[in-house]
Predict the structure.
Amino acid sequence: MAPPAALPVEARGLTDTSPITLPGPILATSSHTHAVFGVPDVQPHRECCPPLPRGVAAFASSEMFKSPANKAKPKARRWDARLSRESAARKKSSLKGAAAYLKIPGIISLGGGLPSPEYFPFESVSVRVPVAPAFTEDETGHTGATLSTGRYDVRQGASVYDLSIAMNYGQATGAAQLLRFVTEHTEIVHAPRYADWECCLTTGSTSALEMAMRMFLEPGDWILTEEYTFSSALETAGPLGARVCGVGMDGEGLLPKELDRVLSDWDAEKRGRKPVLLYTVPTGQNPTGATQSLARRKAVMEVCERHDLLVIEDDPYFFLQMEEYVSPEERGLGEVNGTTSATTNGTAATNGHRGGQHPATLSPKFKPTSVHAFLSALTPSLLSLDPHGRVLRLDSFSKIIAPGSRTGWITAPAQLIERFVRHSEVSTQNPSGLSQVVLFKLLDEEWGHEGFLQWLMFIRAEYSRRRDVIVAAAERHLPRHLCIWNPVRAGMFFWIRIDWRRHPLAATLGPGGEPRCGPPPSALEIEERIFHTAIANGVLCSRGSWFRAQKGSDSEVFLRLTFAAASEEQIVEGVGRLADAVRREFELD
Amino acid sequence: MAPPAALPVEARGLTDTSPITLPGPILATSSHTHAVFGVPDVQPHRECCPPLPRGVAAFASSEMFKSPANKAKPKARRWDARLSRESAARKKSSLKGAAAYLKIPGIISLGGGLPSPEYFPFESVSVRVPVAPAFTEDETGHTGATLSTGRYDVRQGASVYDLSIAMNYGQATGAAQLLRFVTEHTEIVHAPRYADWECCLTTGSTSALEMAMRMFLEPGDWILTEEYTFSSALETAGPLGARVCGVGMDGEGLLPKELDRVLSDWDAEKRGRKPVLLYTVPTGQNPTGATQSLARRKAVMEVCERHDLLVIEDDPYFFLQMEEYVSPEERGLGEVNGTTSATTNGTAATNGHRGGQHPATLSPKFKPTSVHAFLSALTPSLLSLDPHGRVLRLDSFSKIIAPGSRTGWITAPAQLIERFVRHSEVSTQNPSGLSQVVLFKLLDEEWGHEGFLQWLMFIRAEYSRRRDVIVAAAERHLPRHLCIWNPVRAGMFFWIRIDWRRHPLAATLGPGGEPRCGPPPSALEIEERIFHTAIANGVLCSRGSWFRAQKGSDSEVFLRLTFAAASEEQIVEGVGRLADAVRREFELD
């Protein structure tokens, strides 16, 4: 097996092919000064706040839950001129507006058509969940807790949230109970720099992304994205009549100088209105796995500032930031010698083998000593670097709790949240009440912020191990002269470039040295062959072209592999099958 | 108290003020021949079907679950030319398309980024629910059942659905498990007349309505609605750039001859493209409470046929169809004499008093002897009268299970469902997995179709009683020469016209007989006064103008009261407070 010293540091074949300097491990380079509002501040702050609204469809806003420190910050800019006609045209709902009168003591409402909770066929709901920090399935079996919600827990003084509220209609911001937790979490983790930021629950980032796009894009408008981007974002933008302009990337994702070049050279007469919106996945980008370093993020924000872009920060993998991959060989034998090695941020990590079939694939497991150390080590979000409120940040529970919750949240200036809420009122309304009440029970009543962050540390460690498995399998099995990959330091995706020009069909001469007849195949055709040969060999990958911002402009072949879904054994087997397929395609055997 | 013999049979002040003939009680006039596919057919049919798909994000379609009888029917028309640019532009998702390869035995997927279920922090979910037919809260406390779902129930053979599936990503149609139930239910209840109808789960009808509008409307297009309509529908259409054309109604809702007149007289040059879409709430219309009779529905569909309209049938109150209201006086003393009276459809109903404070407000309780009798007595939906697939029917669990489920379904031709699914994939994705699995456990595993229909009978009886309470309170308290109301035979709403021209301020002469200075107040101003006087008197109602399709064109004053939310005592008290407010406004005391 080839020594792993010459790890490829960029995804060649992307626009910028000049060498880049990789920063040290992400967890060691962050210089972000974290929130003055920390986990220990939550409880004292709650005690100073007015009581949590707990009526049916009670109005709530992040303003009720933010720390007083926010008041001293400057306000976000106004974006009135940026709103699409559709978004600007949204009016307040008369019916929802009338809910304000419900605050009058003793008033009887014959107004809103809210069904009576006695007709909800649910007396109680219980979930069995892990107790922090014993998070594994096995541990949950032994030490898990059962969290129950009754129909009238609030009336009975048992909780601040119950089924009579959760199962009825609610406000588009989401229930006050969960909105409070999400607002506090956002302040703890991202500490926005301007005063009037707010959160609003969403029915997942897929839905929130579409709503955010509709907020700014008119038919014919351009939206900027990474050159390879989340295919669903492309499929969302297309039907809105938006055109997608892909911006060059390297191993650290979006290239600020490319972004600047595209915008500075923009020929509005030829192409139409200069883009006003950037869609970016800064952490563990889908599909390339690239993660913007802090320096990169600052440079990106500077260009956005210069060209006055609004930014959709789609960041479901934020908490899945990992240590840099270290190959088993570089690491030595770890547990066998009983050694521990200090990581660069000063916490101790044991090279522990996890038993099972792949002892050689384990990297030093980063075990931050506290949630504070964990948070301090994360490369900060674009939201937290944004003084003017130009970032709409999308968070999602899908990758860190479960996709089936169909719950996430958006953070942005109050002005934009208000528009978002107006849209939610006539579309998604709010996430499922069952999802909200179960998330509230788990996150707020059981785990609290400390427990939730510990859970995120657990999830991150699990995905790190899976990442180690796939990279080690790739190192072991894939033909290195044909397959080049990015270092993966966040998320769920492993992105491989295949040097398709070495494919036998791409050669100008046939196998007998005779000149080929007809045009040589394109990158897309070779990609298709490899994709199908892999399937025939028993492994399904995603084709790079599915993620190409400018459809049909592919000059390189990529495959996206995920290490999120399959078991570790299957990941190793799957990579092996892919390697066989590549060898067969390239006639290596 | 005035004798109730002269019940007003129409909401005067609506466009058509000519007298209308009311049909007999809805439950007696239905001539709809119901489905050949009945509740007893479900189990044998399931046994002939291929096994239910039960993988993560497994593809499913109503086609898998419909009875063979559908195959013999003619296909729906094609609507290609009717699709908006946005809808027509939707492409299949590459990633979702790749899921087809997952059917290959033994294939390992490194394709889709589906998180591994071991990282969902939910070992099991349980709900405590009523067991049919003991549906009340009290009964549930004694005889309720606890339904539990584990993480790996499918693998363990305990169920066909579990948390490892429900909490992961899913198909936009909704999970096969719940889609099957909803498809069967739709066939049992509506028996669509064309072959290629399908269902797709939605995240509630608010969301589905917006998506359906986007499927057909371009900015500037007109949409037809009832003259007074669900305010949220107006607030949805507006920002899309659609213009709303309200069509005259009477006590039975939409007037076919008015619909025909509007369309026949349409001046496309002056107004723009002739409307191609009708939005209607045929049962217990919001806000007027009007219910289209079968004859009315047939006439409406005939006009839609003639002018080739597509129809959005928003029908959340379908199962809340009631007997005609009979005043306590007309009914006699019922239980006191121990008499029973036969209803017109031949089943026996007892005039039973329910104890408590309002024995005089109870109407004969329609107690169908079977779910078959219940279904046969319901006025059929527009969907079931539609031979060509021009109706998109929206069903919702909000009014019959709980709004917090954020789950409903749409039924339409396969062509339109396919477009709807494409849109869902890049927006709502699918309802919450928690909602889906809890609904599945309740509806499919616990109640079955029979139990669900019994539940609907229960809910309907409960709302009938509440309707009786509000109408009796109105008869008792409201000044009859000023307040005119529709008979309410479905839904949740009680619609009152106030004869505002008798308001002292509307008089041309002042209290002393002197001529008034300045212009007389408008209907809207009087409405506002009454609204605020009612609030000052401790009762919140909804203003009719909020529901006016053509904003600002109000020439009458209406109030909408709901009998869904408040307790029966509060309803009576609330109507009394409203009566006092009206008296005060009109200086009656």
Summary: Residues 497 and 558 of chain B are 4 Å apart (CA to CA). The first strand of chain B starts at residue 108 and ends at 109.
